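User: Teach me something about this protein's shape.
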Amino acid sequence: MNKSLPFFALVVLLLFLTTPIVFSAEIVGDNSSETDGEEVSPHEDEEAGEETFVDAWHRTLSGTITGSADWIDSFFYDERYESEENQSRMLLRLESFTEDGVGTDLKLKASLRIGIPYAQKRLKLIVVGEPDQGTDIEGTSGGTVRRSFDRIDNNDVSVSLQHAIMQELNRYLSTRLGFVFRNWQPRIFLEARYRTSFDLAPWGVRFTERLRWYTDKGWESRASLDFERPLSERFFFRTTLEGDWLEDQNGIPHSLTFAVSQFLSNRRAVEYSLGSSFQSRPNYRLEEVAFRIRYRQRIWRDWLFYDIEPHLRFPNADGFRMTPGILLRLEAIIGKYKRL
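Assistant: First, the predicted structure itself:
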């Protein structure tokens, strides 16, 4: 078991104890503006409470490219959706990663997004009990997942304030200021995130750029370009080109991923992906090829999920020898979901 697990268990406990207070504060702020002058039925909230964000996306899905992509991202709770979410919520995630020749690791993540009352859903307090390195755990490459697990020993915790400057369907812009604690040493970081998307029927195109600066590591940038389209009522295709640049490292690691998502029901979906990762320095080379299947299902309650993600990867460093592995995840997303 990972040595840092007790530390993150403490983070989870603190978040669990504080969440009801901050959630109730936001609800009071929202109700004061949304229900002004309106009479609310005593049974209205009870009936509406049975619908989750998955049901909302499915109910409003009209066959458009944007609607299909949003449903997929919200169900899998993808970084594309999480980074622009404008509702308060608490995320608890327990993961077990096993790979041939390495063994099994256990990892616990706790994060909390709190909407600041009366800020028109533009200001968020974000607390993350995990190395805040973006989408590593969501990457196709099994090697990327392994590196994410290795970094957990740093005991990184980040506390930040996010300001959503622009929140439109086709454009999003936010800034973020906060502290990240590396081995209990505080470091300041600044972040700007921009996303633009548009339709080129039948394709949708989405470009995202995240620029971040740390007092100890300097600048880093992550850019991604998505081309996506629905293939049918149950299948959705996406290809993603993503690249990272870090001031304190040589080269520009980048990846190309092809993914097909299959809608099984309101409670179940599966994603099949094939990805390749590359490095530009000291010479341009293929680092790894990986194939992954991700099955995700809601269980027991609408806010509780489990994932099963087997993968086969072929790393260059090991002569492209096939390396099997599997990631198991139990995830609870507790909070107030967006209703459309």
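Now, about its shape. The mean pLDDT is 79. The chain is about 20% helix and 50% strand. If you'd like, I can walk through any region in more detail.
User: That's plenty for now, thanks!
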